Amino acid sequence: TLGNDNLSLGRARPGEAPPAKRPMDHFGFVVDTKEDLQAWYDFMKAKGVNLLDTPADHFDGARSFHCTDPAGNVIQPIYHPAISGQRFEGP
């Protein structure tokens, strides 16, 4: 695409299940600020979306929460300082 695509790969920690037993289990979208993330959480909560957790900080400065869409897919809205606010233009 000509948009902002992102694939996140992480190293397993000692004692975690092998990758084959930890399939890709969610989709994410990036928001520009922590305030935007909180606004999405508040909006989804008010609309009765199935929220799996509350906004929480990550060790790398990111902040996110998880919810499900109507089909049961897990969605992760995330603020991440390294990529939030990036803008790309087409050719």
What does this entry look like structurally?
The protein has 91 residues and is of the alpha+beta class. It has a domain at 29-79: 2,3-Dihydroxybiphenyl 1,2-Dioxygenase, domain 1 (Roll). It has one helix spanning 34-46; strands at residues 27-31, 56-57, 63-64, 67-68, 74-79. Strands 1, 2, 3, 4 and 5 form a 5-stranded mixed beta sheet that branches. The protein is globular, with a radius of gyration of 15 Å. The mean pLDDT is 81.
CATH superfamily heading of the domain at 29-79:
2,3-Dihydroxybiphenyl 1,2-Dioxygenase, domain 1
CATH class of the domain at 29-79: Alpha Beta
Number of strands: 5
Give the proportion of residues in helices. 10-25%
Instruction: Provide the residue-averaged pLDDT.
Output: 81
CATH topology of the domain at 29-79: 2,3-Dihydroxybiphenyl 1,2-Dioxygenase, domain 1
Any idea what the CATH architecture of the domain at 29-79 is?
Roll
- Radius of gyration computed on alpha carbons: 15 Å
Strand content: 15-25%
What is the first-to-last residue Cα distance? 11 Å
Query: Globular, elongated, flat, extended or rod-shaped: what is the shape?
Result: globular
Order of helices and strands: EHEEEE
Structural class: alpha+beta
> What does the largest sheet look like?
5 strands, mixed
Low-pLDDT residue spans: none
Number of helices, where a helix is a run of at least 4 consecutive DSSP H or I residues? 1
Helix/strand layout:
Blueprint: E1 27-31, H1 34-46, E2 56-57, E3 63-64, E4 67-68, E5 74-79
Parallel strand pairs: 1-5
Antiparallel strand pairs: 2-3, 3-5, 4-5
